[in-house]
Write a structure and sequence with these properties.
two-stranded antiparallel sheet; transcription regulation (chains A, B); 8 strands; DNA-binding; cytoplasm (chains A, B); 8 helices; SH3 type barrels; homodimer
Chain lengths: 217, 217
DNA sequence: ATAAAAATTTAGGTAAGTCTAAATTTTTAG
DNA sequence: CTAAAAATTTAGACTTACCTAAATTTTTAT
């Protein structure tokens, strides 16, 4: 069996791999796991011994097939629990990350399977992130960033790239909820902020910083 | 904050205190926690430093008020999760203990409160054990053991004293479910086994060993 | 009452996961 | 191309929770 800590490293390696090409560096892992590079090195040696990562000293790491399978299993559990917390318990989408971070480590395939059924086999978590399948596949999504949409286009808000409480609460205050349809107004050439118009005709001003963290289709 | 392991010790001290008078011995704890007496002594010193138990060397331990408050909080979470697993996810009552053993350590008062509401503020877990209140009180129950009931009496099955999978599955096979009404037939004077009759008139033979692990009212 | 048995604690050690400081390797800049 | 900077690894140490073996205290039985 793998420890809580090992699972978190696998998940983190997967997450970093998604947003950058090439192997994952020791320092990048140290930053995300909030530990020191020396501690990361220790753990990498251990994960390599277990053949969960490909690791050559000084060269960074990448998950093996088995490592990726485990990472996706943990991400699946995390996202299913987030759906539970929001849909069933009524938590806000900005309040579930830390709790799901603990729940994801409960080790029971039957629990995961029953939870999935109970929730109605959801495809996406409350932040619009796709839920890996039981078979261990991450569903592909074809979303663009709102910051890449042209004036006049009509799009639907499908996900977020930033998961911080502060960002999600900002979206709540702007009434930008997942699934809402918006039409792009003019883009301010100075700061690239943009006005979008909701279904209800309500104008919402969105900074470039926010727009590039919103996924639309 | 208190570690996973510390929480388990508190819960175990509480559980042992319930079924025997006087202080809890080091050996009793070693047996239940499946560790060695020397390890228990280490942990007792730590819990005493944190003022969660009263501890005098060689004299056994008992929970302080704060220790009992924490123990009841953990038991509350355990039992609420068991209700969730059985009522919402459809697990059998014989399959939930180990999973709840992990879930009980998820540390979020809001999670516990919302789960309680979601489940409809249940008073008892799937084994008939009372769920401690949010205020930290263990509800009193006035159940007798089936082995102490007289011939001819009509009683209702309210709980179990033994929680093993084997015992619970045995009850399932006998169609002895919580809440079912039975009337006591004759008690065999040789082995103290007893015949009970269900509501449907079905006769069920119950060994003394089983009868003294069944709680009725 | 006291010696043997049982229970408990102390002493010293291990593994996991972390740390700091020092050594080493790789990358970058002139 | 090479020296300085940055990244990474190694060495040695700490904490938690556990262990075994030995010492100590309490209990039990004659």
């Amino acid at each position: 069996m793998h420890s809580f800590t090992e699972e978190n490293y696998l998940k983190t390696i997967y997450a970093i791999s998604l947003r950058q090409a090439g192997d994952v560096s020791t320092n990048a892992l140290a930053e995300v796991t909030a530990t020191k590079a020396a501690s990361v090195t220790d753990m990498l040696r251990k994960l390599a011994d277990k053949e969960l990562i490909h690791y050559k000293k000084y060269q960074g790491v990448r998950l093996t097939e088995e490592g990726e399978r485990l990472a996706l299993q943990i991400i699946r559990r995390h996202r299913l629990w987030e759906v539970f917390l929001v849909d069933k318990l009524g938590f806000g989408w900005d309040a579930v990350h830390d709790i799901a971070e603990e729940l994801e480590h409960i080790r029971s395939d039957e629990l995961t399977a029953r939870l999935d059924t109970f929730l109605g086999h959801p495809q996406f978590d409350p932040h619009g992130d796709p839920i890996p399948t039981q078979a261990g596949l991450m569903p592909e999504t074809e979303y663009r960033k709102l910051s890449e949409v042209n004036e006049g286009e009509a799009v639907r808000l499908m996900g977020v790239l930033e998961h911080s409480t502060a960002f999600l609460q900002h979206l709540d205050r702007c009434q930008l909820t997942l699934g809402c349809a918006v039409t792009l107004g003019e883009i301010n050439p100075f700061d690239r902020s943009v006005r979008v118009v909701s279904e209800a005709g309500l104008p919402i001003f969105v900074s470039h910083e926010v727009a590039r963290n919103l996924l639309v289709e």
